[in-house]
Amino acid sequence: MGGTRAVALLALGSFAMGTDAYAMAGLLPDIGADLRVSVSLAGQSVTAFTLCYALAAPLFSAVLARWGTRTVLVTALVVFVLANAGTALTGSYAGLLGTRALAGAGAGLFTPAAATAAVALVPPERRGRALGLVLGGMSAGTVLGVPLGLLVAAGSGWRSALWLITGLGVVALAGVAAALPPVRGAAAPSLRARFGALARPRVAVVVAVTFTQTVASLGLYTYLEPVLHRVADIGSAVPYLWVWGIGGVCGSLLAGTLVDRTGRPALLAVALLGTLGGALALLPWTGTVPGLVLLPLILWGAVGWAFVVPQQHRLLAGEGEGGAAAVGLNSSATYLGGAVGSALGGLALAHGLDARWLPLPAAGVALAGVLFHLTAVRALAGREAAAGPPGAATDRRDAGAEPRGTGTDRRDAATEPCDAATDPRDKDGTGAAGATAAEALERNTP
Length: 446
Hints:
The structure is a single chain. By secondary structure, the protein is mainly α. It has helices spanning 3-35, 39-42, 44-63, 69-89, 93-120, 127-156, 158-179, 191-196, 201-221, 224-232, 238-262, 265-282, 294-306, 308-315, 321-350, 359-387, 392-395, 419-422, 437-443. Helix 6 (127-156) packs antiparallel against helix 11 (238-262).
C-alpha cells in the first residue's frame, strides 16, 4: 500500500478519536440530566479523558515501546472501542469517569503513534501534508462525526451517540489491522526517552507553549454550549460546533502546506496562537449582531487545529527516537492542557462566573503563551550569544560545503539541544549579529 493510502488509514482512526473527544461537549447537558449531576460536574468526564490521555498514555506507551508502531496503533484502537462501549452502558457517574479515562488512554496511545507513523510513510518534503492529513482526520470528526452524533443523541439519547462512536472505532480498527504496512523508525518512545526530551530547553519551550494553547482552546471548547447560550441565546449548539469543526479541517490541512512552503513553523505557531487569543477575546461581544458569533468560532477552530501541525513538525524535524519521544511528550501536554482547562472552566462556572465571560480568561492564557514563547526565544538567543566564541561563524561548515537538509547533517532540538549554542548562523547562513527577529525565532526554536 502506498504511503498516502496508509496515512489515510491513520486519518480514519483520528476521525474516530475526534468524534469521541469533541462530541462530549454537546452531550454534557443530556449526560448530566441522565446521571443527575450538574453540567459543570459532567464536564469533569472530559477532564478524566484528557488527564488520562496526558498522564496514563506515556506509561502505556513505555510498556508497549518494543511492540512496534502497528501493534501500538491496533492496541490503542481496541482500548478505545471497549472504553466507548463501556461509556454507552454505564449507569453511574463513577462509571462515566472510569470509562472516559480509559478512552483517553486509548486516544493517547493512538495519536502520537499515528503522527510519527505518518511522517515515516512519506518523503521528507511531504511530511507537513501528512501531519495535516492525520490531524485533519481528527478535526473532520468535529465537522461530520460530532453533528451526526448529536443528531443521533437528539433522537435516541446520548448513549446512542456513544454506540455510533464505538462503531467508528471498530471500522478504524479493522482498517489499520488489515492494511497498515510495517512502519520503520516510528516505534512508541520509552517513558525515559519521552521525559528525557523535556530536559532539552528548546523542546521544553515547544511543549510549554502547546500546554498554554490547549488550556485556552480545548478547555473552553468543553463548555462551548453554555457559552453560546449566554453569548447569543443559542439553543442548539450543533450548527455552531459544525462551523467550528469546518474551520478546524481547513486550518489543519492548510497549515501543513504553509509549513512545507515557508519552512518557518515557529513563526507560524506564534502567529496562530496570537490569533487564537484575539478570536476568543472577541467571542463575548458578538451576540448583539445576528450571525457575528460565527466569525470567531470558525477562526478559533482554524487556528486552534492548525497550531498542532507546526508544533509537531518542529519536534519531528529530526529522525529516530528523539523526535518520536518529543512528539509523544507534546501530545501529552496537549491533553494535559485540555484537562486543566476543562477543570478550571468547570470550577469557574460552579463558583458563579457567567458563561458569557469564560472566553476572556481563555484568551488571556493564549496571549500569555505568546509572551512566554517570545521571552523564551530571547533568553535562548542571549545564551547563544554568550556561549558562542567570536569566531564561531568561521569554524562551521557552510551551505556550499555541505548542503543543508542532508540526512547526516540535520540537527533538531529533539536530538542535539546544544546546536543553538555551537552554530549561531541562521538557516540562510548569516551571522547572529545581523539576524532579524523572525530569523532569531526560527534559529532558537526547533
